[in-house]
Amino acid sequence: MPWTPSTPRPRRCPVRGDGALEQLKREGRIVVVGASLAGLRAAETLRAKGFEGSLTMIGDEPGEPYDRPPLSKQVLLGKARADRTALPRLRSVDATWRLGVPAAGLDMAARRVRLADGDEVPYDRLLIATGVRARPWPREEEAELDGVFVLRTRDHGAALARRLADGPKRVLVIGGGFAGSEVASACRERGIPVTVAERGASPLVGALGGVIGAVSAGLHREHGVDLRCGVMVTALEGDASGRVRAAHLSDGSTVETDVVVVSLGALRNTEWLAGSGLGAGPRGIACDAGCRAFDIRGIVTDDIYAAGDVARCPHPLFGYQFLSLEHWGNAVAQAGIAAHNMISESTDRLPHMEVPAFWSSQFGVNIKSVGVPSMGTEILIAQGSLESRRFVGVYGYQGRVIGAVSFDHGRWLPFYQELIESTAPFPPSFPTVDRHPDGQRPMDADFPDPSVPSHGPTVTLSGYSPADRRITFIPAH
Amino acid sequence: MTQSLLHQILDHANRADPYPIYEELRKTPVHHEDGGPYVISTYYEIRSLLHDPRISSDARNLASAGADPLAEETTPQEGALPPGFLKLDPPEHDRMRRMTNRHFGPPHSPRRVDDMRPELHDIVDGLIAGIDDPGRIDLVEQFSYPFPVTVICRLLGVPREDESRFHTWADTLAASLDPDPDADPAERGKGANEARMELGMYLAGLIEERRKNPGDDMLSQLATSRGEDGQMTTMELLSTAALLLIAGHETTVNLITNGMLTLLRNPDVLQRLRAEPKLVVPLVEELLRFEPPVQLLPQRTTLADIEVRGVTIPKGSSLWLVLASGNRDPLRFENPDRFDPDRPDIQHLGLGSGIHSCFGAPLARLEAQLALSELARRLENPRLVDDPPPYRQNAVLRGPRHLHITCDGIRP
């Protein structure tokens, strides 16, 4: 049954006026859609900042909020259990939890969220933190073969860890981004043969470019990964019992495998907002710097906020482009800002201006990045050396520092973050400790042509228009 | 003439309460007196500089080594030990620290420190049980000093009975860290170098023995194991061992003593600690902010002209980073002069930050936690005899020389 946003307008909580905000904080109704990291931290912040009204947490997964980074690391190594990664609670949130039921629609005029089971939840303020999901293998019948996995949720992590514990003869990872590389690393640590098929010229190339990608490729190979770059998987083949047995590659080769991990990036969970009039699409939900969502006309709402992987905000350090990030720290910071702003007067609101930061752990190497390396065109190895795989690489864009990445050199990154924050000139001209001869001159960072898709980077930038490219919502994943 | 701020920091008369001087210093975040170092006293500036690759820890980069009356004597003497990794820059620093850490912390030895817990507990227990007269305790002599010394000896595999020998060398070396402007730098440098050399010869003998009969101590492991970075040379091994022995010696004693002093000055917190043993974890963090054993880092050098708060610090300048002042910066911490173990978001500078952040931090934390919770639990109605207690001379490694306390009895 189509849902029409025409239900009668409920009691409104006025935005302005004497005591309205106090009233909202005392007896308002706040609904958070998305019960993961951003949703939970926002709820905690709301309570910490004195929100005493009703709080409803809606989540499509049945369990309470859990942490995802261990799923592609310790869980796959069998060192942690997927069901034991609950997020620590920083304080009590005293919420009504509606778990295991996804949100299915939004009526902005009536201020109601509709759930998949038909229930409706009214709100005075809404926070959308529905995040992303794993991009599935595009051919459905192949994706359903036994042994084909994606890795995003706790259930995925548990299922894949179980299968790895059974000792598969080979794992094929499709996509050499951060998640795919972490999976490959975990498999090798367990002694399982792994093939990685990457469409680009090297792993991590979409996020960090070809110079660093080459270092990553070396790491893969040195750890015994059968790395195939510049190839696509064209088909997965199952046996008579419906178990995956082989993959066919675009170079004509075949990989015999009994486990396939599809690691092709993520899709933003915005389909449920179709027809709502909110400025939401495949790139996420457009918001202002204070996390207030735009409607499709480009007008900012005052009662709907977005945070975490699903949000995209204009960032002053990156040309005010709309930035969407799949970063743990971004989810936490943005949740805090959104929660604060939801219950603040307009003049007290805060902008979300965190410099993006990201980390990964693979093949025994700690990788960290700050800023937006994928915006860079040049790279300078400012400290350490590529050869030793211990270094800091600084990315330049139009004569300024825009990002940095470290391999086993993370303690220096706060300095480079300050360079990014202060739009310092690139290349940095000063001497540093541990500057090597190959760090004297910048090189082409060697990012792939954006028109040739690789697995997506973990950062996307898009234009200024909040509902860019289209004004009607088309669920075009 | 009023004393310069720099001299006030060093003046022993201000040792018991240096915080008003730090407050004065923070009014000029980059404080510079003619011919002296650039003194940085505010939280955010110190934190930035600790991560700044244009700052060197290697004294050989000082432009004016020797010309600066406050600079340390840097000319190495014939036969002296090379600098420990504390005074090296990457990549040498990283390599030495990695090779040392293999036997101390994750990823190769993730449980080493925690596995010492029962042993540490026994040592604490033995020291408290050995207090004969609860009415007259010198906490430093009877507890805070012997505890970390016994621990570092066990960890390294240094015979505890040799303690009196290396105690003298350690004392001399710790004193050499104190940038005393009135002492003759050449004389002090000579004394320190002699002490380092004697300590080195003592350790060389031990290491020789460990090579023949390796045990499960760190000296044996450092001397015999090979990792991805290869093996330490004998000279590297000696300077690393000396560094660990002295650092494991001269800091935790102050952390524990400062801790008990602070608890006795805040009886409500002491009372809470008895009732909630888990409080000791945030309490020790707050202690590292409130009374850090390492008050300032006096040996950093600029490799380039750098700008801090609008002041250009020329290349080759000596920098002092006053950690203890940054820890009380009101721009970073609310009510900074209040001891508050419930403080949220406590990213203090007490253990430094960046690549030189305290190597022994996990052990120091564990020692302080065990020591303070056991003292709180077992001393009945403890009171301070002198407040403030007498302090050691050192402005860098600040702590009471004695802490006389009295209590009504000792619980089992």
TrEMBL record, chain B:
Q: Which domain of life is it from?
A: Bacteria
Q: Where is this region: Disordered?
A: 60-85
Please name the CDD domains in this protein's record: CYP164-like
Identify the Gene3D superfamilies for this entry. Answer: Cytochrome P450
What does the sequence similarity comment in the record state about its family? Belongs to the cytochrome P450 family.
Looking up InterPro entries in the UniProt record yields: Cyt_P450, Cyt_P450_B, Cyt_P450_sf
Q: What is this protein called?
A: Cytochrome P450
SUPFAM superfamilies for the chain: Cytochrome P450 (SSF48264)
